[in-house]
Amino acid sequence: MIKRPRFMPDNFMLMMIATVVAATLVPCSGTTALVFNGITNTAICLLFFLHGAKLPREAVVAGATHWRLHLTVLVCTFVLLPLLGLALKPLMSSLVTPDLYLGILFVCVLPSTVQSSIAFTSVARGNVPAAVCAASASNLLGIFLTPVLVGLVVVAHSGGLSSFDAIRNIALQLLLPFIAGQIARRWIGGWVDASKAMLKVVDQGSILLVVYTAFSEAVNQGLWQQLPSHSLVGLLLIDGLLLAMIMTIATFGSRWLGFNKEDEITIVFCGSKKSLASGIPMAKILFAGHALGAVVLPLMLFHQLQLMVCAVLAQRYARRAVPLGRAV
Description:
Elements: H1 11-25, H2 30-54, H3 57-62, H4 67-87, H5 89-95, H6 98-108, H7 115-123, H8 128-154, H9 163-194, H10 196-220, H11 223-226, H12 229-256, H13 261-272, H14 276-286, H15 292-318
């Protein structure tokens, strides 16, 4: 079997690219758009219900014993990256459009990923139990913190968005299904844990639906005519710069704070990554009526960059020497 080159997008990213192309060539509009929006909203509610049913509360509670590590991850995710996004505004303003900058700020306030953070930590021989707790806690807290940070960080630099409405909509469309899933876990948790393939279909399917409807609306509004080609290059540079800065800060910051190598790996992978699975459904709710296609584009690029960079970095960590007396 031929091994996929590291620089190649993964299958899901290829599906997203195909979805963007489909929305560009055959955008939905009118009644069709209303039908797609209804299906998309239902899929998002189902997605967060299943995530609630999948996430064991014990994982977050158990992680409280390593509170310094989890606090460091949360600071990287919800404090440092938003500050970096604001600090780079003078550079971004000259490279990207205002809507793309809005999307970059949105990337900065999102929670960490769960599956890929844990997977990369495992490949790199890091502290996997801590990664499970840190990533789960970040995703859970993100349901509350991301709308608040959108109100504090994004709204203040864009206008036209109501933080109160955003929090209310998140509560109705994401939080309530998530809580319902947590309540239902005692009855359906085993089935959900055994049905990972089904959850993956709902996960990826809901994201692709949001991408299609978002880009259809944006194309109908003239997205590609209004988006200069140099802005796409600038967006790629800014996403790469943000990822490089937060990974560097997480690496040297964890060493300065006295964490061992295994904990450093966990902090780097959990503290630098942003969740596409949570981010795109949240964007649909938080930026309703806005240029959603341009808002989610920075997240799609950041997602692929973080996967490629983390794959290389995880292999590099994995090749390190193991001190005598310590298990691999």
